[in-house]
């Protein structure tokens, strides 16, 4: 049997580095460390999980929209939603000088 992950909502997520986001779907593992989550190649560190959601802490990435990829090694599957579920790192200006 092929195991599949399905991300249901939200389709677009935006947050700054260090923020927690919740990914809702089905067929997740109840052991959060079994998930490898990346957003445009940047790790989103899992904090907790159930079979229907994962909470992870967003890493620091460049401004822009990126796909979310979840690798669930314990069940031998990878999910990236073919770009249908994206995360946006907002542009942040920290200072301006002459």
Keyword list:
98 residues; mainly beta; nine-stranded mixed β-sheet; elongated
Approximate strand percentage: over 45%
Order of helices and strands: EEEEEEEEE
Number of helices: 0
Helix-residue proportion: under 10%
Structural class computed from helices and strand pairing: mainly beta
What secondary-structure arrangement, pairings included, does this model have?
Layout (H helix, E strand, L loop, with lengths): L5 E4 L2 E3 L5 E7 L8 E5 L2 E8 L3 E6 L5 E9 L4 E3 L6 E4 L9
Parallel strand pairs: 2-9
Antiparallel strand pairs: 1-3, 3-6, 4-5, 4-7, 5-6, 7-8, 7-9
Task: Provide a brief overview of the structure.
The chain has 98 residues and is mainly β. It has strands spanning 6-9, 12-14, 20-26, 35-39, 42-49, 53-58, 64-72, 77-79, 86-89.
């Amino acid at each position: 049997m092929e195991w599949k992950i399905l991300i249901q909502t939200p389709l677009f997520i935006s947050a700054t580095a260090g923020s927690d986001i919740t990914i809702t779907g089905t067929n997740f593992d109840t052991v959060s460390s079994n998930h490898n989550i990346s957003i445009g190649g940047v790790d989103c560190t899992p904090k907790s999980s159930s079979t229907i959601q994962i909470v992870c802490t967003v890493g620091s990435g460049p401004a822009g929209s990126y796909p979310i990829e979840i690798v669930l090694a314990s069940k031998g599957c990878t999910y990236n939603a073919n770009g249908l579920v994206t995360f946006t790192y907002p542009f942040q200006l920290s200072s301006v000088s002459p």
